[in-house]
């Protein structure tokens, strides 16, 4: 009988139920879309912030003090310590190896350059240019992974603001990329070539073909960028590097992350170690690469953390506001649908139904509506969130069970609360005047 | 004739009053739905305008984004600029104030007295020029700047030379010597870690370059477009120097700004649209209950047009009331929210208020739309209880 009454109520007033259901579905759609985007936005923006480049820099622990002015190290090549290149694949074995988005080892030397500019078809050798900064690094290097497969990385990942006109050099080939200021001053264009040497200038080494012009906006604009192996042979440091830039996907640091790792309890330490904070990733790299000094590039990491925290908070507030508005509108809608049924309630009570039974019946109706409306709203919201995610970040947020549960729960609570107040008033009604139509 | 019209008008308002007062519960529900919609609309609009502006000041966290260097000197540090060039740097931009820091770099031999062995290191003479008052630090992580006798040591520099906090340092080039006291340590992960920062005047004496500087670092707040304009403008003012954006940050900021403002606009837009739809359905639900009223009015001779006008007036009145109260609440809400997110209360925008109220009235009138169908009601069937 109970179920029949519920079914009957839906059959008898389809338009009413449809409208209340629609309000529910729309409200819950807003809640779902906002919630999905807010849950997802941290990860997406963290990826976006990687366009700022590396946030960790690794140098030898035993290194002498770099004499760096305007981004150029004035130390001679044989001063200071180097690190073995062979250890680099270990970076992809740390606990958060999936968060290592890219890394690039650097060898900087200062040497002499002899440009050979193509002129009217013939190559015209110029003069030796002294004291040219030469940067050896990876452009697009395949790092073999210990568990098989390979990881492609290089300076294009760690310094994504570097713009190349032409193309990067290929590893192994006798090619190089020339900074825009250097190229302009010496009238070098793509397809010209440059010979590089350190010290001994009596034998002109085989020239490197210029494949691209680099614009970085920094000191690199005045330098020549060559494959790492070539810079190593120039510096006579085969298989070694001096500086390593790492770009890692991190979680913004909170108060917990700033605690000193040494004073943590073992449980706290585990939690800290297993959270991708920049400081815990730095520690894990240090464990894998002995003899290194891993430092956080604070300017990048902290600026990113601060902005990310604020934007996430802002989005949560928007989400909260959206859910609040949806809840109020849905509550109002269900309140209205109960309020209109005083006559029906009067009749039921006249026929001997207690207030409890009437309440139960109406609650069952509202809940049924909440589940159906909430379900439709969830589907609607997921579609919206996908559209939003794809438009803005080029990737849709994954639908999660959590959002579904929250939305259905919210729908149930809101409809019940919305109907509770008119229901209480209705339960106080005397059936007789209602039935008389007063 | 005019008297008749007058009576009509009086009657119109009287019916309206009765319609509103007839069912207090219904009135409350409608006002609640409309008010909630108006509050969210006003809060989101206000927050959105404010957040975009605030975001650009947030980018200060990245530190300097524009540098001024001697023309054509990308790598060689020997060239310098006259210190007076800083007077040509405009201090105000639409989004706030520019902070600047001028520096002179030199390589000097540094020793820790009395016994310390001298080692060569980069010494930077720093002179921060605080145009801004709201943000006391030109750099992130920089709480102390060198001045007078106090200097700031980079962490790696300090480790190499065994510098202790508050210890004495002697900096020398040739036969020129300066001494200073280490006031604090600096860790940035950048080249600042490897150097010693001293007062600009001391560095100028050491390098024997009075009133010269190597570069100026500027932190310019604003949208990517505003920063670009600032660079172009500054380059025109100081043709003898080169003004360059720090592309790592200007480009990163531009990308992130685009994403975040797109996200905000889209989210706010969708939330507003769905909130409007939601309020509309809730209102329509109430509206179709009005069959009896319409039936009665038509039965006693109300023209369809007048009946519809009556209900539309009711909806508009409700929208106005809900909007006026709700939008005010929403603006108050957004002030609080702005404070929670950015630490600074959002400035209320007056334009938001009329827009939110107007939107609410519009939604209320639109949601009375199903009433048009009531025009086709046949009074007799209503009274027979058929419909």
What is the structure about, briefly put?
The complex is a heterodimer of chains A (438) and B (387). Chain A has 438 residues and is α+β, with helices and mostly antiparallel strands.
Could you name the key traits of this structure?
heterodimer, A: 438 residues, 2 domains, six-stranded mixed barrel, B: alpha+beta, six-stranded mixed beta barrel
Task: Work out the helix count of chain B.
Answer: 11
- Using only C-alpha atoms, the radius of gyration of chain A works out to 34 Å
Q: Say what oligomer this is.
A: heterodimer
Number of strands of chain B: 13
Strand content of chain B: 15-25%
Q: N- to C-terminal separation of chain A?
A: 29 Å
The overall average pLDDT of chain A, rounded, is 82
Largest sheet, strands/sense/barrel of chain A: 6 strands, mixed, barrel
Structural category of chain B is alpha+beta
Polypeptide structure, described:
The complex is a heterodimer of chains A (438) and B (387). With 438 residues, chain A is an alpha+beta fold. Chain A has helices at residues 2-12, 14-49, 155-158, 180-185, 228-235, 266-273, 278-288, 298-339, 342-350, 355-393, 401-427, 431-435, and strands spanning 56-60, 68-69, 72-73, 83-84, 100-119, 122-125, 129-137, 141-144, 150-153, 163-166, 175-179, 193-197, 208-215, 224-227, 240-241, 243-248, 292-296. In chain A, the strands form four sheets. Chain A has a six-stranded mixed beta barrel with strand order 5-7-14-11-13-12. In chain A, strands 2-3 form a two-stranded antiparallel sheet. In chain A, strands 4-15 form a two-stranded antiparallel ribbon. In chain A, helix 2 runs parallel beside helix 10 (355-393), helix 2 runs antiparallel to helix 11 (401-427) and helix 10 (355-393) runs antiparallel to helix 11. Chain A starts with a helix and ends with a helix. Helices cover 51% and strands 19% of the residues of chain B. Chain B has helices at residues 2-22, 24-58, 155-161, 200-207, 224-237, 247-287, 291-299, 304-342, 352-367, 371-374, 379-383, and strands spanning 66-70, 81-82, 92-93, 96-97, 99-111, 119-129, 150-154, 168-173, 176-186, 195-199, 212-213, 215-219, 241-245. Chain B has eleven helices and 13 strands. Chain B folds into two domains: 2-57 and 257-383, no CATH class; 66-245, no CATH class. The longest helix of chain B is centred in the C-terminal third of the chain and has 41 residues, at 247-287. In chain B, the strands form three sheets. In chain B, strands 5-6-10-7-9-8 form a six-stranded mixed barrel. A two-stranded antiparallel ribbon of chain B has the order 2-11. Chain B is rod-shaped. At the A-B interface, helix 2, strand 2, strand 17, helix 8 and helix 10 of A face helix 2, strand 6, helix 3, helix 6 and helix 8 of B.
